């Protein structure tokens, strides 16, 4: 069974990306994955700063988040777009998790050998697509194999019902397609 970590890149409780992450968690569970859905409220991290790390080491929240990344076989990044790029919260998570804790720990150990998928949601017409371009480049550069299939939910402000479910079957089918590709590739590499 593939262990899939799902990381929403928004701390706002009612964010469209957190709603999309919850949909993805249900879809992945139905597909047979062991799902670990991150709640960003549990990881209050300072903005990455080398001086903080030098003075006190990795913050406890970063260590806990890194443990969850390390334990996962695959990661689904569900990231909003900010000013046509990656959300600052998502980038901060990526940066803290990338840090080594000991001299003998391999660089980027929490990312090596991981398979990832990308989702985004936005009320705009592009659905956060522009941010995924940058996220894909960052992840590829740190050794993550990002599957080609991705999904951006445009018009997200009208695509969830009161219970948080997607109102369009085609949108859920697209989420399912990304998850199936991630689980398939992770299964072949595992």
TrEMBL record:
Signal peptide: none
Domain of life: Bacteria
Pfam families named in the record: FMN_red (PF03358)
InterPro entries: Flavoprotein-like_sf (IPR029039), FMN_Rdtase-like_dom (IPR005025), NAD(P)H-dep_reductase (IPR050712)
Positions of the NADPH-dependent FMN reductase-like domain: 2-156
Name the record gives this protein: NAD(P)H-dependent oxidoreductase
Annotated organism of origin: Luteolibacter flavescens
């Amino acid at each position: 069974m593939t262990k899939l970590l799902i990381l929403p890149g928004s701390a706002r409780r009612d964010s469209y990306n957190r709603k999309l992450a919850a949909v993805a968690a249900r879809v992945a569970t139905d597909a047979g994955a062991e799902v670990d859905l991150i709640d960003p409220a549990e990881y209050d991290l300072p903005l990455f700063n080398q001086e903080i790390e030098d003075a006190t080491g990795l913050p406890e929240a970063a260590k806990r988040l890194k443990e969850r990344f390390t334990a996962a076989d695959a990661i689904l990044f569900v990231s909003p777009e900010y000013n046509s790029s990656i959300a600052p919260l998502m980038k901060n998570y990526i940066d803290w998790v990338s840090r080594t804790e000991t001299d003998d720990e391999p660089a980027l150990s929490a990312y090596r050998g991981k398979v990832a998928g990308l989702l985004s949601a936005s009320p705009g017409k592009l659905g956060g697509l522009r941010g995924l371009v940058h996220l894909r480049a960052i992840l590829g550069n740190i050794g993550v194999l990002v599957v080609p299939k991705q999904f951006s939910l445009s018009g997200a402000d009208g695509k969830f019902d009161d219970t948080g479910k997607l109102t369009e079957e085609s949108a859920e089918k697209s989420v399912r397609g990304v998850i199936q590709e991630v689980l398939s590739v992770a299964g072949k590499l595992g």
